[in-house]
């Protein structure tokens, strides 16, 4: 994709684009009216003080956190059209501040943890509407069945489903708005809540059940902001900004509608209004409309989950390319750009979702686990954003107030959420810590193994390779012998590659190829460069691939050779006389090296622990050949110790024979 078409996706505005945006991006934030007001009132008696204060908090949270921070500021931080925490990290990586990898890894892990908890909470909240009609209906099996179907259809690509998504979300948001307007028209007074004074009064009051900690519940209204940024590449910035006006209006109308309804029932607890399902979201509907409302809400909840699942696939794909995650199998179910399906992650998420449902059972208990992971994730984005603004040379008098305001808001939200830690918040933190440790181990192991890899100059081996190539006393190993190399410079190669060619069993070949893959910090690009080291003998190819491009080395390499032959740069006819007469192409053999930990290593204790964990993870992940997309019939895998030691010099004393 050229930069031109990137600007294009962000400046293009169309009815279809706006509709698509509704379907892809707003599922998560759009389903929050299902549980926010219920969570704010909780077990308290309804009073105007709590309602107006709560609504005021919601209004200002959506305005400051979602609109100003994400829709206006963060959406500007796009990496060639793509958004999300790893894209942001790829941008700030250029500042060469090494610790920025920490917020990137924590933020990425928390987003994945969110992917495990959003589907259960939104689908449960919707399905629990059925309790109004049949109080003893078992909701858990219904929720699990819905999620199982959702995760099963992932493999066919979201193209199949997205056709229905956008119209349903349009119906959903319109329904939210209309239900809200009906209630507000009966109690206009509720609009006073726009005044931030009510929020201030509620947060500073010390009455039991109110006060500062209500922010933990309020915070749930901004849940989808992070995924709104991650999905920017699918919809374009302008489409998101324009459609957000509609979405935010309908959300606020619905919240205020719920508030208007509750203000008319002051002094009661929610359970007194309806003991089967005391959710103000359903209470503001006319009785005849409730069944329709439940169906639409359930569909909207499924769509919200879908957005997070496909977001998780993109996230893991980027993590793999940035060396944060073991190589796993990726399928490309449709030809839509950026559409991918990762079976292992899909089923891991599903198992995680089922675990959450069985553990918490009801949506109101899941809320505790929810807020914690999201607020920490947002703080990581704020940290990276700070460095992005500095890197973009934004004036300090803009940066300081922005970062200070969001620092204060997010630390307040965090403090309010910490009280929920023991009530379930620890669940997401445990999940996130597990993910963080996988990412950290993988990243560190790659770093350690790089620091122990010895690099040598090719120059010193040119002569011996040229002679080996024509030494007929050694049986030919392959016509084309191909090594993958990690060496950044074209005139250098790992020592173990030379060791493999010359020492293990001398491998005679007509042509030696060294291939290096560079992962770029932009999403889509496919370029290559050829370096001729010895004419018709040794070549090096460098591939430059975007961090969202699939690595299909087999196909790419054949394509490069075909182009080189067409340009007359290389002769690949077999050099066996009988075959070359008939213009038969020689065979290709890839040699990959697998490292193992030898006992006589020089690693520190910490490095050994990291490397041992890494090798266990490696056994579970994709093999190198599959990761590079190679055909296994033409691959030889060799084992090397992580550190190649020179042979030790053992001192021995020779005893002379005595001549008597």
Give an overview in words.
With 660 residues, the chain is of the alpha/beta class. It has 2 domains: 3-446, Up-down Bundle (Amino acid/polyamine transporter I), CATH 1.20.1740; 453-641, no CATH class. The chain contains 27 helices and 8 strands. The strands form 2 sheets. The chain has a 6-stranded mixed beta sheet. Strand 5 (526-534) and strand 6 (538-545) form a beta hairpin. Helix 7 (101-127) crosses helix 8 (139-152) and helix 7 crosses helix 18. It is elongated.
Record the SSE blueprint.
Layout (H helix, E strand, L loop, with lengths): L2 H9 L3 H11 L1 H4 L5 H6 L6 H26 L11 H8 L8 H27 L11 H14 L6 H28 L9 H9 L10 H4 L6 H6 L1 H4 L1 H27 L6 H4 L6 H4 L6 H32 L21 H18 L2 H29 L4 H23 L2 H31 L3 E3 L4 H9 L5 E9 L7 E3 H10 L3 E12 L6 E9 L3 E8 L7 H14 L10 H5 L6 E9 L8 H16 L3 H4 L7 E7 L19
Parallel strand pairs: 2-4, 2-7, 4-6, 7-8
Antiparallel strand pairs: 1-3, 5-6
Helix pairs in contact: 2-9, 2-14, 5-10, 5-14, 6-7, 6-19, 7-8, 7-17, 7-18, 7-19, 7-21, 8-17, 8-18, 9-14, 9-17, 19-20, 19-21, 21-26
């Amino acid at each position: 994709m050229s930069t031109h078409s990137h600007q294009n996706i962000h400046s293009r505005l169309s009815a279809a684009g706006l509709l698509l945006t509704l379907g892809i991006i707003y599922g998560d934030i759009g389903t929050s009216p299902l549980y926010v007001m219920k969570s704010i009132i909780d077990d308290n008696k309804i009073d105007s003080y709590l309602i107006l204060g709560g609504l005021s908090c919601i209004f200002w949270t959506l305005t400051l956190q979602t609109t100003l921070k994400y829709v206006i500021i963060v959406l500007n931080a796009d990496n060639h059209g793509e958004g999300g925490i790893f894209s942001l990290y790829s941008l700030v990586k250029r500042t060469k501040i090494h610790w920025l990898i920490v917020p990137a890894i924590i933020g990425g892990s928390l987003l994945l943890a969110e992917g495990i908890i959003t589907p259960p909470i939104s689908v449960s909240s919707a399905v629990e509407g059925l309790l109004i009609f049949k109080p003893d209906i078992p909701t858990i099996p219904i929720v699990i069945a819905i999620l199982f179907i959702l995760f099963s259809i992932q493999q066919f690509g979201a193209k199949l489903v997205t056709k229905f998504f956008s119209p349903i979300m349009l119906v959903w948001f319109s329904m939210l708005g209309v239900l809200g307007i009906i209630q507000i028209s009966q109690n206009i007074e509720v609009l006073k809540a726009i005044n931030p004074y009510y929020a201030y009064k509620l947060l500073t009051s010390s009455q039991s059940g109110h006060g500062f900690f209500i922010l933990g519940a309020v915070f749930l209204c901004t849940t989808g902001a992070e995924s709104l940024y991650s999905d920017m590449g699918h919809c374009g910035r302008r489409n998101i900004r324009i459609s957000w006006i509609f979405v935010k209006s309908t959300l606020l109308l619905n919240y205020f509608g719920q508030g208007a309804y509750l203000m008319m029932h002051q002094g009661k607890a929610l359970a007194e209004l309806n003991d089967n399902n005391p959710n103000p979201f359903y209470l503001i509907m006319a009785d005849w409309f409730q069944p329709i409302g439940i169906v639409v809400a359930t569909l909207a909840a499924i769509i919200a989950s879908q957005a997070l699942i496909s977001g998780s696939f993109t996230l893991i794909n980027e993590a793999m390319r940035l060396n944060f995650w073991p190589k796993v199998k990726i399928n490309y179910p449709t030809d839509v750009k950026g559409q991918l399906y990762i079976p292992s992650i899909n089923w891991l998420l599903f198992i995680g979702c089922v675990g959450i449902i069985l553990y918490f059972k009801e949506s109101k208990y899941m809320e505790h686990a929810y807020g914690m992971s999201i607020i920490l994730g947002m703080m990581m984005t704020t940290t990276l954003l700070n460095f992005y603004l500095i890197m973009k040379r934004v004036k300090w008098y803009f940066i300081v107030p922005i970062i200070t305001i969001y620092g204060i808001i997010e630390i307040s939200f965090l403090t309010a959420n910490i009280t929920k830690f023991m009530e379930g918040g620890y669940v997401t933190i445990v999940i996130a810590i597990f993910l963080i440790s996988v990412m950290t181990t993988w990243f560190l192991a790659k770093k350690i193994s790089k620091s122990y890899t010895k690099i040598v100059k090719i120059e010193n081996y040119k002569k011996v390779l040229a002679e080996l190539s024509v030494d007929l006393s050694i049986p030919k190993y392959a016509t084309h012998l191909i090594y993958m190399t990690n060496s950044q410079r074209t005139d250098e190669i790992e020592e173990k590659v030379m060791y493999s060619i010359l020492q293990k069993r001398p491998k005679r070949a007509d042509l030696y190829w060294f291939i290096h893959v560079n992962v770029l910090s932009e999403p889509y690009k496919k370029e290559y460069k050829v370096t001729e080291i010895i004419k018709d003998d040794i070549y090096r190819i460098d591939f430059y691939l975007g961090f969202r491009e699939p690595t299909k080395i087999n196909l790419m390499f054949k394509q490069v050779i075909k182009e080189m032959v067409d340009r007359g740069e290389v002769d690949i006819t077999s050099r066996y006389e009988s075959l070359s007469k008939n213009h038969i192409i020689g065979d290709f053999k890839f040699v990959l090296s697998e490292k193992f930990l030898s006992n006589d290593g020089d690693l520190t204790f910490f490095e050994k622990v990291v490397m041992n964990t890494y090798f266990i993870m490696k056994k579970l992940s994709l093999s190198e050949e599959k990761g590079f997309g190679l055909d296994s019939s033409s691959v030889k895998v060799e084992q090397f110790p992580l550190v190649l030691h020179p042979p030790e010099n053992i001192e021995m004393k020779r005893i002379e024979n005595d001549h008597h």
